Amino acid sequence: MSLNLILLGPPGAGKGTQAQFLIEKFGIPQVSTGDMLRAAVAAGTEMGLKAKACMDAGDLVPDAVVVGIVKDRLQEADCAKGYILDGFPRTVAQADALASALAEGGQKIDAVVAFEVDKEALVSRLTGRRACTGCSAGYHVDYDPPKVDGVCDKCGAKLFQRDDDQEETIRKRLEVYDNQTAPLVGYYEKAGQLKRVDGMLPIDQVKQTVLDLLPGV
C-alpha cells in the first residue's frame, strides 16, 4: 500500500510528533522542509544562509527554494511506497505546484491531515522548547524537561532556545500561517482530501484519530 500524506497545522500543532508515529507505523519517510532547511543552515550553504534570515524573522522561505528541495526529495528511492509531507505546501501556489509535479508521475496525495490547536496553547508549546548545543536533542521546559535545568540528559551539553522559538517571532510565524497557509485548509477541503484532527487532545488520542481517518488503513 502506498500512502502519500500531508500534515497541515500551525507551528507547534504536533505535526512532528504525529509524523514520527506514522513513520514507525507505515515505514514511510517524513519529508520535512523544516529539517532540510535547518540542515542547510547548519552546513552554512548559500541557501541555508538565505533560509536562516527568513526563519529567524518568522517569514516563509521563498517558494522557489522550497519547491525545488521537495521535488528532488520525492524522487529518492525511500519515497517509492509513500511519504509524509511536513511543512509543505505552505501556500496555495505551492499546493498547485505539488499537484502538478505529482500528476506528471501519476501520483496524488491520499489525505491531508489538519491539526487544529488554540493559538495561546501554541505559543506556550513553542516558547518552552529547548535544544542541545551538543547532540541537538530536544526538550520542553513543561512537558519534557531535562533532569538538570539547562543541561542535556544525553551528552551533558548546554541547552538553548532557538531564535525562531522566541515569543515575538512565534507570534509573527502564527500570523504568517493565518495569512498564507490557513487557506490550504479550504483548498484541500474543496478537493475532498482534508481530514480534521483536534490537536488539543492527548497525544495517544490524536494518534488514534489520525489512523481512523486515513484511507485504506
Question: Could you describe the 3D structure shown?
Answer:
The chain has nine helices and eight strands. By secondary structure, the chain is of the alpha/beta class. The protein has a domain of 150 residues: 3-Layer(aba) Sandwich (Rossmann fold), CATH 3.40.50.300. It has a five-stranded parallel sheet, sandwiched between helices. Strands 6-5-7 form a three-stranded antiparallel sheet. Helix 2 packs across helix 3. The radius of gyration is 17 Å and the shape is globular. The N and C termini lie close together (9 Å).
Layout of helices and strands, plus pairs?
Blueprint: E1 3-8, H1 15-26, E2 30-32, H2 33-43, H3 46-57, H4 63-74, E3 82-86, H5 92-104, E4 111-116, H6 119-127, E5 129-132, E6 138-140, E7 159-160, H7 167-181, H8 183-190, E8 194-198, H9 203-213
Parallel strand pairs: 1-3, 1-4, 2-3, 4-8
Antiparallel strand pairs: 5-6, 5-7
Helix pairs in contact: 2-3, 6-7
Which descriptors apply to this entry?
alpha/beta; 9 helices; five-stranded parallel beta sheet
The helix content is 40-55%
What is the overall pLDDT average?
88
Find the CATH superfamily of the domain at 3-118 and 180-213: P-loop containing nucleotide triphosphate hydrolases
What's the helix-strand series? EHEHHHEHEHEEEHHEH
Assigned CATH architecture of the domain at 3-118 and 180-213:
3-Layer(aba) Sandwich
Dominant shape:
globular
Integer-rounded radius of gyration: 17 Å
Structural category is alpha/beta
**CATH domain topology of the domain at 3-118 and 180-213:** Rossmann fold
Regions with pLDDT < 50 over 5+ consecutive residues?
none
Number of helices: 9
